[in-house]
Amino acid sequence: MRPFRIDVPPEALDDLQRRLAATRWPQEMPGAGWQRGVPLGYLKELAEYWRTGFKWRQVEEHLNSFPQFLTEIDGVDIHFLHIRSPEPDAMPLIVTHGWPGSVAEFLDVIGPLTDPRSHGGDPADAFHLVIPSLPGYGFSGRPREAGWDTERIGRAWAELMHCLGYPRYLVQGGDWGTPVSLRTALADPEHVAGVHLNMLPTIPPQDPAEPGRLDAADLARLQFAATFEQDGAGWRKIQSTRPQTLAYGLTDSPVGQLAWIVEKFREWTAPGQAAEIPVSDDWLLTNVSIYWFTASAGPSAQLYYESNRLDADFLRTWTGPWPLAMPVGVAVFPHDAVRPIRRWAERILPTLTHWSEFDQGGHFAALEQPELFVGDLRAFARDCR
User: Fold this and answer.
1) Of 169, 291, 305, 335, which is the active-site residue?
2) 305 included as an active-site residue
3) pTM above 0.90, yes or no
4) How confident is the model at residue 90 (pLDDT cuts 50, 70, 90)?
């Protein structure tokens, strides 16, 4: 374990400003709004704030206020935050982000999770918290060989918790954190006490009559999934098949990287046709800056190629069944990109013991709704301690 601090070189900051100032902007179809992608006026304004107003050094200082480390697992340096609770009986917990997120998603929940006594909570709900960056993402190393799929990452997470000396722990995740958490539990069943997810894909069973048994709410979720697959899955198709080609543009153009990520925060968080993204510009730019300064566009997309390239890969990665022995909890947020159907979830998760549905929030639950996220995780963990 080597202590780690983020320290972006001054020349990298200067280079970002130069590239932003020299952006060659495309034309835009009049009146398109968000229908054809990120609107030109919105992106110009956000990029200008990135160039002239955003304070990366303040972000860096905030991130560095939490203990961070690097350790090599299976030939790759894994970056992680490790915040031990002041409560001696706290439950160890490893939390995994997805794409296009980062460890910065969880900054607002670190305090309540690790030190509930100081945040109006019960000290019995405390966690020792481990928040790793996925291989190829952020400040983790880049795999130099094929095969780093969610199963391999799950094994790496089990090894990380073993190296930290945690004999019993919980796992939590959304987006890529969902299959990684489930794979960690499968790889380490003797030590994983429970799995909490804030995203769970469910697909129709083979029985063609099954959709006819759904109520109106679940039918709406099924229709949303069909529409999303037709209209909203372009990023996944590209990153699953040609990640290297995409990487050239996003690694060279900060505005390209900004648009590629911001679009998903808008689509996977905003209800209906709302124009506003329910997270601050400063947080959006914090997240995009992590991808930019670490040149993560290509390496992060490689996880899609490893795990989603063929239909069989996609099904194996996301749809189970998951023959777990420990309890599983699912928190459902209404504006997520994935909206599960409980009766189908029960078929793929035989140990599903906790199911919560909320009336606000989307794909990035800990960021958008930190209080709901923390409360649900605490409630699930009480039965696993």
Assistant:
1) 305
2) yes
3) yes
4) very high
